[in-house]
């Protein structure tokens, strides 16, 4: 079930916490019933959630101060612009550049080129304390709680007795320092965010307590809490350094397992904690692209086709897009809030097949750009590449991506990997499985895409697309 987004003002994107809660409970009950099981047979619950969407609430009453503020929300745009132009940020860059030069410690590299974006939780949280008086007053009395979706669900499931998050969700907020593994006091001080609001951070695969028996009729142990992309990585069994996961859903996410090493990189890649299980901490490097599933869904809504399954065949039915380029911009951009999607190169002979091919090509071209950055910046030999998410069902995108990066890409039989990852993590914590070797045996592959064309064959089309992209910013 989809939780409908609310748009109370232009650029604002919110979720109603009560709607999210009721749908969450409803889906669990339906899933158990559909499996022909009873609640008392459930060994444990694993929760995988969207990242960066957050809420604040009163510690004593449990009453939210506002709706969930989505990761897509743009209300902090003015704050972001003023900070990115500020003298203070330039001074911070200089200080940390010098520290990195003197120490060689990568911990100082990320702050040396820190820039804020509307996608970051930090700026929207700063906006909350500047604009919502009740939250500000509660924080002064240590009565304000902050939580991403996982923390809120955990709090509600346990009737307020458990207030926590895990390392994967915390590191995805941009407020949690992955090097020191703690909430970042320097950043919070800069942005006037009180340190008292943050939840304790627990292992990803961990006994968080039990759901109150009134909710499901029996107490169900909550054995894992994990962010969606990290969960998909675990579900794909990308357990070794150099393993790569490509998720193509609403957006696209490339994640590389970097083992115990944390890579900070200027620009398109950012470091995350993948998961923490006991003493084991696994780090990831992630890059993302927007308008993957979003663009395909939009094309369906305007009736460029009647069924998503037709799109690969439509794209393959024409030799090329006839010079038509699709510029992504349907999803909010943190770098350019004014960016909008567009087609360039339209001609009288352009038909639906050309438009569909242009949309799918733009996904493959951006996969290629991000892959090249990963190869250049991440100094670990890349091993397997495994794809998941709804768009991984599109054979045209998968084959073209394989051709462009000249690598084999595996696609599992089940592409809903975030759910599977949460189940794996909960199963390990509850003793249902004893180790990762058992999980690997459960993997089922549906297809393997191997390079069939030389990437140079795509060069004219990709060059034209890159040229079109240069004309599109700040529209």
TrEMBL record:
<dbReference type="InterPro" id="IPR018484">
    <property type="entry name" value="FGGY_N"/>
</dbReference>
<dbReference type="GO" id="GO:0004370">
    <property type="term" value="F:glycerol kinase activity"/>
</dbReference>
<feature type="domain" description="Carbohydrate kinase FGGY N-terminal">
    <location>
        <begin position="3"/>
        <end position="235"/>
    </location>
</feature>
<dbReference type="InterPro" id="IPR018485">
    <property type="entry name" value="FGGY_C"/>
</dbReference>
<dbReference type="Pfam" id="PF00370">
    <property type="entry name" value="FGGY_N"/>
</dbReference>
<dbReference type="GO" id="GO:0046167">
    <property type="term" value="P:glycerol-3-phosphate biosynthetic process"/>
</dbReference>
<dbReference type="Pfam" id="PF02782">
    <property type="entry name" value="FGGY_C"/>
</dbReference>
<dbReference type="InterPro" id="IPR018483">
    <property type="entry name" value="Carb_kinase_FGGY_CS"/>
</dbReference>
<keyword id="KW-0319">Glycerol metabolism</keyword>
<comment type="similarity">
    <text>Belongs to the FGGY kinase family.</text>
</comment>
<dbReference type="InterPro" id="IPR043129">
    <property type="entry name" value="ATPase_NBD"/>
</dbReference>
<comment type="function">
    <text>Skin-specific kinase that plays a key role in glycerol metabolism, catalyzing its phosphorylation to produce sn-glycerol 3-phosphate. Involved in skin-specific regulation of sterol regulatory element-binding protein (SREBP) processing and lipid biosynthesis.</text>
</comment>
<dbReference type="GO" id="GO:0019563">
    <property type="term" value="P:glycerol catabolic process"/>
</dbReference>
<dbReference type="InterPro" id="IPR037444">
    <property type="entry name" value="GK5"/>
</dbReference>
<keyword id="KW-0963">Cytoplasm</keyword>
<dbReference type="InterPro" id="IPR000577">
    <property type="entry name" value="Carb_kinase_FGGY"/>
</dbReference>
<keyword id="KW-0808">Transferase</keyword>
<dbReference type="GO" id="GO:0006641">
    <property type="term" value="P:triglyceride metabolic process"/>
</dbReference>
<protein>
    <recommendedName>
        <fullName>Glycerol kinase 5</fullName>
        <ecNumber>2.7.1.30</ecNumber>
    </recommendedName>
</protein>
<feature type="domain" description="Carbohydrate kinase FGGY C-terminal">
    <location>
        <begin position="245"/>
        <end position="429"/>
    </location>
</feature>
<dbReference type="GO" id="GO:0005739">
    <property type="term" value="C:mitochondrion"/>
</dbReference>
<keyword id="KW-0067">ATP-binding</keyword>
<keyword id="KW-0418">Kinase</keyword>
<dbReference type="GO" id="GO:0005524">
    <property type="term" value="F:ATP binding"/>
</dbReference>
<keyword id="KW-0547">Nucleotide-binding</keyword>
<comment type="pathway">
    <text>Polyol metabolism; glycerol degradation via glycerol kinase pathway; sn-glycerol 3-phosphate from glycerol: step 1/1.</text>
</comment>
């Amino acid at each position: 079930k989809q939780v409908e987004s609310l748009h109370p003002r232009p650029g604002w994107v919110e979720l109603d916490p009560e709607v999210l809660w009721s749908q969450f409970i409803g889906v669990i009950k339906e899933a158990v019933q559909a499996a022909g099981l009873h609640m008392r047979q459930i060994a444990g619950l694993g929760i995988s959630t969207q990242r960066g969407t957050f809420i604040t609430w009163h510690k004593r009453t449990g009453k939210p101060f506002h709706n969930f503020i989505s990761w897509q929300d743009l209300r902090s745009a003015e704050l972001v612009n003023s900070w990115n132009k500020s003298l203070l940020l330039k001074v911070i860059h200089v200080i940390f550049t010098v520290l990195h030069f003197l120490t060689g410690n990568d911990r100082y590299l990320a702050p040396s080129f820190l820039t804020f974006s509307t996608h970051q939780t930090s700026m929207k949280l700063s906006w909350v304390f500047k604009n919502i008086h009740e939250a500000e007053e509660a924080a002064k009395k240590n009565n304000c709680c902050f939580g991403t979706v996982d923390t809120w669900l955990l709090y509600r499931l346990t009737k307020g007795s458990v207030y926590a998050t895990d390392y994967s969700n915390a590191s995805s907020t941009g407020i949690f320092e992955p090097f020191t593994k703690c909430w970042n006091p320097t950043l919070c001080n800069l942005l006037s965010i009180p340190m008292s609001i943050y939840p304790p951070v627990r292992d990803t695969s961990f006994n968080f307590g039990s759901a109150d028996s009134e909710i499901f009729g029996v107490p169900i142990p909550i054995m894992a809490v994990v962010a969606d992309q990290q969960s998909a990585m675990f579900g794909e069994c990308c357990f070794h350094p150099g393993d790569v996961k490509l998720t193509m859903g609403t957006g696209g996410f490339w994640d590389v397992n970097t083992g115990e090493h944390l890579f900070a990189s200027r620009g398109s890649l950012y470091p995350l904690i993948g998961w923490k299980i006991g003493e084991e901490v696994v780090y990831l490097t992630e890059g993302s692209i927007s308008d993957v599933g979003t663009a395909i869904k939009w094309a369906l809504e305007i009736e460029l086709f009647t069924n998503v399954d037709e799109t690969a065949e439509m794209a393959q039915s024409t030799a090329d897009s006839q010079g038509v380029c699709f510029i992504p911009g349907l999803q909010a951009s943190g770098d350019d809030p004014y960016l909008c999607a567009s087609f360039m190169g339209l001609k009288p002979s352009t038909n639906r097949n050309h438009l569909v091919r242009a949309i799918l090509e733009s996904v493959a071209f951006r996969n290629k750009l991000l892959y090249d950055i990963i190869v250049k910046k991440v100094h670990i030999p890349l091993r397997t590449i495994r794809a998941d998410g709804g768009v991984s069902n599109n054979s045209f995108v998968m084959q073209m991506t394989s051709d462009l990066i000249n690598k084999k890409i595996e696609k599992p039989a089940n592409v809903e990997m975030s759910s599977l990852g949460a189940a794996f993590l909960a199963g390990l914590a509850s003793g249902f499985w004893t180790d990762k070797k058992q999980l690997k045996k459960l993997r089922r592959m549906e297809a393997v895409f191997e390079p069939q064309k030389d990437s140079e064959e795509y060069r004219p089309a990709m060059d034209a697309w890159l040229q079109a992209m240069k004309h599109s910013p700040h529209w």
